[in-house]
Amino acid sequence: MNKATRKTIIAGNWKMNKTPAEATELITAIAPLVKDADCEVIACVPYVDLYPALEAAKGTNIQIGAENCHWAKSGAFTAEISADMLASMGLKYVIIGHSERRQYFGETDKTVRDRVRAALDAGLTVILCVGEYLEQREQDVTAEVVRMQTKIALMGVSAEEMSRIVIAYEPVWAIGTGLTATAEQADEVCGIIRECIAELYTNEVAEATTIQYGGSMNDANADELLSKVNVDGGLIGGASLVAEKFAAIVKAASK
Ligand code: PEP
What we know:
Strand content: 5-15%
Structural class: alpha/beta
Largest sheet: 8 strands, parallel, barrel
Number of helices: 11
Distance between the termini: 18 Å
Number of strands: 8
Bound molecules: phosphoenolpyruvate
Order of helices and strands: EHEHEHEHHEHHEHHEHEH
């Protein structure tokens, strides 16, 4: 395992928070706090915040991403946003398959796969979320669940395209609950995902893939989680909405 060969990425997922004016304010507050970061820093924001966030992030080391995209290039999909639309704004990143999309909006492994395809075709880098429900962990099927989600989402993704895939392991029971996976649990499952990528592609591809942990990561637990060999960063919900907390996680990832 050589963690140094992989990009460490700290990405915020703002979810349905912040108005456009508040987005400008938050990016402006985060920027000076993370300017010396030794990792990639991303804020994935609601669609209406993309433009103000991009403007506020100009000249900083913060990259802006979206929280979802549709699988079709265009068409009769009222209120949806295509990957091409996002790419045309100059965005690089998009989150796909977040558990809140799976839980509340009918997202399936197949629609995740279709969105991944569309995002890659548009030239975007995907932050692909996988993770088990509490009952699945209790039934000891976490490995099977994350392996299945990973395999289906990556169907048709070439080894070359894997350089534009980041995986976020997000146990559903830890998202927004204040419950965090232990560093050992996070490391174990990120390692299982890495093994799965090695089986699908090669060891080199697996070793080069950034695998984040997400689920109540905060300024107090980031150090320990990020010290683990298979944890290459974090996808941060709640703590990404507070400049100082988000910056503290970026600092922990920069050590
Ligand atoms: C998330 O939304 O991806 C997330 C990890 O949320 P939180 O940090 O609030 O648990």
